[in-house]
Amino acid sequence: MPHILWLDTDHRLLAASLHRLLEPHGFILQTSPEGAHLCLRDFHTTLSRTLDTPTLPTIALVHPLTHPAELRDLLRLGYRGYVSSQADPETLVHALRRVRDGHTWAEPAFLLQLVEHDQDPHLTSREREVLFYLRKGWSNAEIARQLGIAYKTVKVHVSAVLAKRGVRHRIELVVPRA
Fold first, then answer.
1. Residues 152, 92: one domain?
2. pTM of the shown model
C-alpha cells in the first residue's frame, strides 16, 4: 500500500529527486497536506522554517550544523524526528518508515551531538547503561544483546528511564534540557 508523503519544500529540484528516490519504496509525494499520511519538512528554506506544531507525523530535513536548541524545539513541538540533508538515501527511507509506523527517529550522529554527560543519581547503573545505548540510537534488541539481558528487561529499563526523566519518547532522552 503506498503511503502519501507531503513534501513541504520550496525546492523543485529537491522534490523531483526525492520523488524518484522514494517512489520505489512505496512513498507517493505531493506538495500539499490534504490526504497525506506523513510529512517531510525541509528546514533549509525560509518559508518552512516556521516552528509550528505539525498536524501530521513529521520529520524535519535539517542542515548538519542545525543548532541543538532548534532540534530540541522541533521535538517539543511534536516533530517525530529529524534527518540530516546529507544523510544517505537508505537512512531517509528508514526514518520515514519508522515515523510511518508510529515511531520517532533521529540519526545516531545527531544523537551523539546532543548527548550530555549523565550522572543522574535517580537512575540505576543499569538504567544509565541502557540510556547510553539509547543515545547511540540502538534498538531494544541491540541493547539486550550487548548487555546480555532479555528484550523485555530492556523495555522495563527504557520505561523506567522515560518515567524518571519525565518524557514520553525515547528520542527526548537525548535532547539537552532547557
1. no
2. 0.63
What is the CATH classification number for the domain harbouring 94?
3.40.50.2300
Identity of residue 137: G
Rounded Cα distance, 154 and 92, in Å: 27
**3-class DSSP assignment, residue 27:** strand
| Structural domain total, the chain | 2
State whether 46 and 86 are in the same domain.
Answer: yes
**Is the same domain home to 87 and 122?**
no
In a structure prediction context, what are the per-residue pLDDT tens digits for the chain, which is 178 residues long? 789 999 998 889 999 999 999 999 999 999 899 999 999 999 866 444 556 788 899 999 988 777 766 777 787 788 888 898 888 899 999 999 989 998 888 776 566 555 544 567 788 888 888 887 887 778 899 889 888 899 999 999 999 999 998 888 887 776 655 4
**For the chain, how many helices (H) and strands (E)?**
7, 6
φ, ψ at 32 (rounded to 5°): -140, 160
Whole-number Cα distances in Å, 62 to 59, 85, 87, 144: 9, 6, 10, 31
Is residue 10 domain-shared with residue 75, that is, in the same domain? yes
C-alpha distances in Å from residue 75, one per residue of 20, 60, 91, 172: 28, 10, 19, 7
Give Cβ neighbours of residue 155 (< 8 Å, ≥ 6 apart): 140
